[in-house]
Design brief:
By secondary structure, the chain is of the alpha+beta class. The chain has a domain of about 45 residues. The protein is built from 1 helix and 4 strands, in the order ββββα. The strands form 2 sheets. A two-stranded antiparallel ribbon has the order 1-4. Strands 2-3 form a two-stranded antiparallel ribbon. The protein starts with a strand and ends in a 39-residue tail after the last helix.
Length: about 80
Amino acid sequence: MNTIDVKTVKAFDNAGEFVNPGRTIPVDEIRAGELLRNGLIEDYTVKASSTPANKQAPRPENKAGKPKPPPEKKAD
């Protein structure tokens, strides 16, 4: 979990510690979401993680898309 620094709007009990309004506290992302829904903290922003490199295997050539060779004629 990433830790986020958030600023409190209202006073509340944060894991056994009383937090006054206007104080900045570190919380994890899930706890920050809960506190935001309850109106206890200001809106926060989360840093976007970098996009991972594409690790897919190369596409195989489509063998079904190639035309069939003409059938060989049999001897009469």
